[in-house]
């Protein structure tokens, strides 16, 4: 913008300078012409006045006739301050106030002014005086010399004073012109700055808008065309800022939705390069966005079936859906949709791939199938036993009292087991569907544990198993007392069932902080830890991850012999979770098992 300002300033200076120079030259020329005409008129007036007042008889009487013109020319020259020359009718010099030949006059040559005076009645001429640079103006008029005839009288005056005056005026004009040029330069610079300054602001704001700074504004108060342009720029910037804010908000929403989607999304452009991937897709593919973005899709070498599907979709430009099992980075069952993208003219733009993780659904389906199979299997044994012994009784064994009584006892035991199984199934169903209403109240652990152990003492006495407890005073927890008792009874029953005769089952309750460290009952604690430990046969390490599954048994024959349904530990786990607690198990084969439950003190 400085170039424009400098050009404008230079244009103003040249225009005004040339205008002033032309005006000065014209003024000096007019003034010079006026001075020349004034001098000419003055000489003419003097010459006419002299001719009107001269008495030629007196002139000729004063001197010898031959020298009369010379003496008269000298006398008049002294009075008039001019050169005076007399000529005869042929242009020959009769007398001259100056000695020698007149300036520009060659012998035998008639001066120009004399020629003009003879033809027009008045003659004038300006010329240099010989080799001198001085210029002289001559004015000539026809004259009558009395009895001596007629001729011409010429007055001449030097023009040096006119040249000096012209030089002085020209100097003043040049000085004035220089001062005016300086003022013009300053004023022109200010004017050009006033013109280009708003344009500079507009240009800067335009560059800032180009660099995505939509908050930039033009501060121009003018109401002229430049001010209107600045206002238009501001309006455009406000509109762009509003549009960009809306686009950024929409982009942020879409990005947030995309990043928090449970389904994976991958976009591949027409050049087979991955241009978009969300967090869920990264987890499913086992590769980060930094590794995939900008790369061709065949970088997914671990997922050969997926690469094959992408190639098929790219070739056919059709929606493809399939279910694939990924084994890397972990085993997942994915429902994959590949949708081709097309432009406005039906041009192929790329592919959008959506991954739905249906591993949990398929796992639930398997669990449901296994549950039905397990329930059917568990129900089949007692029903078969009841049916078989009932048929035996109907076949005649009812007539033998001892045999009938034994068979009926077996039928009763199996029906009891069947009742417990159905009850546990219904109970577990309610707990899993969260249809169990918990009634929380403060529970003092020491008397609560003692009552629970008394309830199990009869069962423990049958195997000569010792029940022990280690509970400090004044330890409380907010819980549903009946459900908490159900948890402990199931764990104690499980411990008693899998502990050899003469063994022991111990319950320990201790307060812990939120970080998991133990503390005294008098100190502040946020959780309690309940440990149920037995000296039984233990659980193999391979079975520990599945110990809380429904109908899962480590020793199936032993469980059925003890009357267990295989649902006790599953019920325990779900009840602990309803209390917002956790449960884990540590076990060594042959050394016993330890179940550790942590419950928050306040619900």
Distance between the termini: 73 Å
What is the assigned CATH homologous superfamily of the largest domain? Answer: Histidine kinase-like ATPase, C-terminal domain
Q: How many discrete domains?
A: 4
Structural class: alpha+beta
Would you identify the CATH architecture of the largest domain? Answer: 2-Layer Sandwich
CATH topology of the largest domain, which one? Heat Shock Protein 90
Report on the structure:
The protein folds into four domains: 13-165, Beta-Lactamase (2-Layer Sandwich), CATH 3.30.450.20; 261-357, PAS domain (Beta-Lactamase), CATH 3.30.450; 362-430, Orthogonal Bundle (Helix Hairpins), CATH 1.10.287.130; 436-600, 2-Layer Sandwich (Heat Shock Protein 90), CATH 3.30.565.10. Helix 10 packs antiparallel against helix 11 (401-432) and helix 12 (445-462) packs parallel to helix 13. Residues 557-563 have low confidence and may be disordered. It has 15 helices and 17 strands. It is an alpha+beta fold and 603 residues long. Strand 1 (83-88) and strand 2 form a beta hairpin. The protein is 52% helix and 20% strand. The chain has a five-stranded antiparallel sheet. It has a five-stranded antiparallel sheet with strand order 7-6-10-9-8, sandwiched between helices.
């Amino acid at each position: 913008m400085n170039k424009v300002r400098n050009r404008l300033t230079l244009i103003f200076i040249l225009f005004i300078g040339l205008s002033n120079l032309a005006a000065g030259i014209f003024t000096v020329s007019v003034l010079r012409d006026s001075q020349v005409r004034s001098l000419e008129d003055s000489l003419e007036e003097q010459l006419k006045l002299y001719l009107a007042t001269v008495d030629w008889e007196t002139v000729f009487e004063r001197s010898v006739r031959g020298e009369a013109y010379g003496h008269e020319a000298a006398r008049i020259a002294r009075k008039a301050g001019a050169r005076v020359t007399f000529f005869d009718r042929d242009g020959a010099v009769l007398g001259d106030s100056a000695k020698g030949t007149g300036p520009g006059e060659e012998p035998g040559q008639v001066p120009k002014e004399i020629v003009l005076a003879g033809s027009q009645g008045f003659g004038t001429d300006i010329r240099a005086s010989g080799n001198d640079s001085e210029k002289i103006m001559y004015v000539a008029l026809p004259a009558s010399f009395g009895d001596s005839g007629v001729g011409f009288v010429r007055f001449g005056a030097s023009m040096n004073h006119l040249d000096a005056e012209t030089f002085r005026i020209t100097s003043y004009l040049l000085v004035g012109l220089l001062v005016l040029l300086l003022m013009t330069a300053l004023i022109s610079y200010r004017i050009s700055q006033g013109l280009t300054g708003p344009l500079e602001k507009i240009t800067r704001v335009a560059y800032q808008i180009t660099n995505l700074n939509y908050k930039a504004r033009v501060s121009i108060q003018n109401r002229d065309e430049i001010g209107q342009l600045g206002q238009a720029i501001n309006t455009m910037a406000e509109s762009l800022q509003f549009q960009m804010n809306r686009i950024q908000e929409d982009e942020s929403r879409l990005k947030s939705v995309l990043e928090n989607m449970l389904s994976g999304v991958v976009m591949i452009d027409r050049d087979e390069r991955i241009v978009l991937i969300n967090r869920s897709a990264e987890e499913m593919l086992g590769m980060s966005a930094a590794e995939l973005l900008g790369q061709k899709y065949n970088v997914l070498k671990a997922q050969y079936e997926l690469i094959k599907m992408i190639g098929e979709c790219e070739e056919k430009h059709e929606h493809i859906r399939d279910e694939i099992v990924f084994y890397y980075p972990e085993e997942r069952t994915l429902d994959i949709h590949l949708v081709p993208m097309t432009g406005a003219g039906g041009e192929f733009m790329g592919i959008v791939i959506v991954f739905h993780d249906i591993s949990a659904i398929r796992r639930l389906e398997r669990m449901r199938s296994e549950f039905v199979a397990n329930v059917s299997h568990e129900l089949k044994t007692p029903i078969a036993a009841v049916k078989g012994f009932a048929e035996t009784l109907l076949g005649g064994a009812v007539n033998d009292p001892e045999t009938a009584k034994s068979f009926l006892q077996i039928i009763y035991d199996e029906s009891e087991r069947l009742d417990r199984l159905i009850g546990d199934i219904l109970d577990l169903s309610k707990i899993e569907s969260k249809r169990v209403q918990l009634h929380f109240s403060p529970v003092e652990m020491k008397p609560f544990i003692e009552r629970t152990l008394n309830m199990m003492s009869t069962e423990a006495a049958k195997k000569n198993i010792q029940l022990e407890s280690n509970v400090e005073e004044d330890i409380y927890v907010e819980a549903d007392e009946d459900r908490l008792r159900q948890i402990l009874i199931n764990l104690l029953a499980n411990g008693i069932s899998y502990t050899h005769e003469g063994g022991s089952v111990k319950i320990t309750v201790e307060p812990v902080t939120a970080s998991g460290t133990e503390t005294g009952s008098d100190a502040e604690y946020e959780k309690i830890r309940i440990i149920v430990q037995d000296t039984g046969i233990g659980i193999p390490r391979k079975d520990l991850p599945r110990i809380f599954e429904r109908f899962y048994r480590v020793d199936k024959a032993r469980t059925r012999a003890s009357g267990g349904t295989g649902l006790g530990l599953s019920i325990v786990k779900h009840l602990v979770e309803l209390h917002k607690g956790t449960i884990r198990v540590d076990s060594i084969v042959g050394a016993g098992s330890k179940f550790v439950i942590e419950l928050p003190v306040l619900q």
